[in-house]
UniProtKB/TrEMBL annotation:
PROSITE patterns: RIESKE. Its EC number is 1.14.12.19. Gene3D superfamilies: Rieske [2Fe-2S] iron-sulphur domain (2.102.10.10). InterPro entries: Rieske_2Fe-2S, Rieske_2Fe-2S_sf. Keywords: 2Fe-2S, Dioxygenase, Iron, Iron-sulfur, Metal-binding, Oxidoreductase. Residues 4-99 form the Rieske domain. Pfam families: Rieske. Signal peptide: none annotated. SUPFAM superfamilies: ISP domain. This is Bifunctional 3-phenylpropionate/cinnamic acid dioxygenase ferredoxin subunit. It comes from Streptomyces niveus. It comes from the Bacteria.
């Protein structure tokens, strides 16, 4: 897995998603409950940016239709979304937040 620096830890406000793009993949990076998560930024129900939604209880909500996704697993917590969105591994090195969107071969 190739980890890439996406931002500094101090750049992330607790509960406020930050959209980044890695290898053409939109990713929402979220700091909440003392952890940092990376989840695909596009809702599986509609082509909408999740980083514009609310974060609560380790979930991110799509602002358009209200689907909520678990930041740990990407699984939807309620309708209308029924398909999960990809989540990505995160590493913290000092103040650097690193994310990998590549799979091991």
């Amino acid at each position: 897995m190739a980890f890439v620096r996406v931002c500094g830890l101090t750049e992330l406000e607790d509960g406020t998603p930050k959209r980044v793009e890695l290898d053409g993949i939109p990713v929402s990076v979220v700091r909440t409950e003392g952890e940092v998560f990376a989840i695909n930024d596009i809702c599986s129900h509609a082509n909408v940016s999740l980083s514009e939604g609310e974060v609560e209880d380790c979930s991110i909500e799509c602002w358009l239709h209200g689907s909520s996704f678990d930041l740990r697993t990407g699984k939807p917590n309620g309708l209308p979304a029924t398909r999960p969105v990809p989540v990505y591994p995160v590493q913290i090195q000092g103040d650097d937040v690193l994310v990998s969107v590549t799979q091991e071969s």
